[in-house]
Amino acid sequence: MREAAKWLQAALDGGSLFAKLHLAHLTFIAGQEDAALAHLKENLSRRVQRGRDTCAGCGQTRGEDTPMLTCSGCHVARFCSADHQKMASKKAAWSLWTGRHKDICGVLGKWREVGKDGVVPDSCTVDLVAFLAAMNARCPKDAEGAPEAGARAGFWDG
Ligand SMILES: [Zn+2]
Ligand SMILES: [Zn+2]
To answer: Is 5 contained in some domain?
Structure first.
């Protein structure tokens, strides 16, 4: 029962992470670049905070003492196993919420450096805008406000 509750919490957290990313995308295509960047930065900060004990493949939370693989690209994402690392690069059910890891891996790695050695958030702006533009190019349906996407975001937002 406890496990199920934990899983649900992870799923909800993952879902709202997705909703934030979706919101960043929607505000970006509406031309509100500053708002979109704010949503994206919040999303990335949460990923950096939570990445330590959550598998980016299956989305399950693991104990701190559980050995996990770390993504060699961003050094943020963790995976239960090599299989789950592969899972994160495919369009699995879980990745519908989070996107494929390789799409966000680059900006996640850059965002991880913010705050270290005088790296300021503004130094990532160019990369974040490029990420939003690429996300937009991948989701032409969302750009037209597809009802399915809206319903999904609304559900996970609640
Ligand atoms: Zn996993
Ligand atoms: Zn990565």
So the answer is: no
Give the tens place of pLDDT for each residue, 97-116. 456 888 889 999 999 999 78
Whether 152 is in a domain gets the answer yes
Looking at the structure of the chain, the number of domains it has is 1
Find the domain containing 37 and state its range: 10-157
Element (H, E) at 70: strand 69-70
Q: How far is the CA of 92 from the centre of ligand 1 (A)?
A: 12
Question: Which residues sit with Cβ closer than 5 angstroms to ligand 1, an ion?
Answer: 55, 57-58, 80, 84
Question: Mapping DSSP to helix (H, G, I), strand (E, B) and coil, where does residue 69 land?
Answer: strand
* CA pair distance 137, 154, nearest whole angstrom: 22
Question: Does 27 map to a domain?
Answer: yes
Per-residue buried b or exposed e for 14-53, using 16+ beta carbons within 10 Å of the residue's own CB? bbbbbbbbbbbbbbbbeeeeeebbebbbebbeebbebbee
When pLDDT is averaged across residues 26-34 and rounded to a whole number, the result is 94
